[in-house]
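B., you asked whether I could sanity-check this one before it goes into the benchmark set. Here's the sequence:
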Amino acid sequence: MNAPQAAANRPLSKAWQPPGRVSLDGLRRMFSMEAAAMSSAMPGDSDADGGRTWSWDDGDWMRARDARHTGEMPLSLYRLDAADWFHSRFTQPLDWNQLAQELVPYVADLGFTHIALDDALLAQPFAVICRFVETCHVAGVGVVVAAHARRAATDPSLIDCCGRCHIDGIEEHNDSGTPVRCRLFVNGDLDTAVVLSCRPRWNEMYPRYLASSPAERSLIHADWVHALTPVETDRGVLDLMPRGLAAIGQWRLPVDGDGWQRFAALRALLALMWALPGDKWLAMGIELGQVLAEPFEESMRWPLLFESQHAGLLRQVADLNRLYVNEPALQVRDDERHGFQWLVADDSDNSVVVFIRLAESGHASLICISNFQARVHHGYRLGVPAAGRWREIFNSDSVFYAGSNVGNGHSVMTAPVPSHAWPQSLTLTVPPMATLFLRHEVWYGDSP
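And here's what the prediction gave me:
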């Protein structure tokens, strides 16, 4: 591997750390806060006065919550079953304090902004709920809870409970138990909520596309492009999670190909998902690549991280979340159609899709190229709307993600060769079963 290629494929994040290893400044207060909470309010002792006596220490989070939920900051949710996640690390019974000490650093280090829990948290005493939520908020992580199947998300008692416990949102399900939307609170009175709706076309198409052979993917290419094209005028969420009543940790995703191709396809899909408009919602275990492993008794099989394919996928999820925050072109907008434009939507023979995300400022535009064939496309000519230097800032085929490390080095320059209706174009090496991000950086005449 030459030096430019190694530099281009260098990961954004540090090496993975085992759950429980705190690396965020906000978590330094966590354990002292736990001790104070235990002495000030034991579970259930605040319930007699309506549960309004908790001494909160999450002022920074609550003051910024409106801005976070109304679109000024991107949202990335990590969905889990609390008991299953806990039991993958500890023995029964579920201890919410111990869960927080392991879960919160793990989620924060991966860059998720919220955790989405099942309704087990709402069944706990008031002090237990508050202590758990406060621990999350101090670390900069929001808390969303699932509404019970027999309890409407707009139930006044549920809304009141969320307000008293500083819960940030409610996950709503359909009759089959599948999440369909997330309601995020945006003010202290909880009378207003941002509704993130799941995208049914995405949920219907991505499992079908991944399960198809390369020849079949070419045949359904038009359907795939249709599912990827944002048409909604509201704010939505792209999710990767089981449908219906399937247990989160036991879900397996059918993907065509051998072992390497299946992991490469999942890495490419996750990168494509993060590049598309919309907030992100990922079920637990996907970040480990557990959806591609054989069935296990545990809902979270941590020893998988000793294998490079699984560890690489975890590192990629962390890097995608950091890019999501740092790249202006990837920021969420209320109308998902804005800031998105297809560059190549008709390359069914190669199973390649290319689109551009445009920042509101007009700068730092970002191109996403996804190849879902297991072959390298050398000399792939791509027309682009801006001349100059385009830097490869992400490559799901990087060796750091257990890929084959095929790419374009530091950057590529446009040539005055018309292509795809644009007066200038790039000549790229497109890796097999991979997604690339190229950011526009320098115009002709500017210094590199």
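One thing to flag: The first strand starts at residue 76 and ends at 80. Otherwise nothing jumped out at me.
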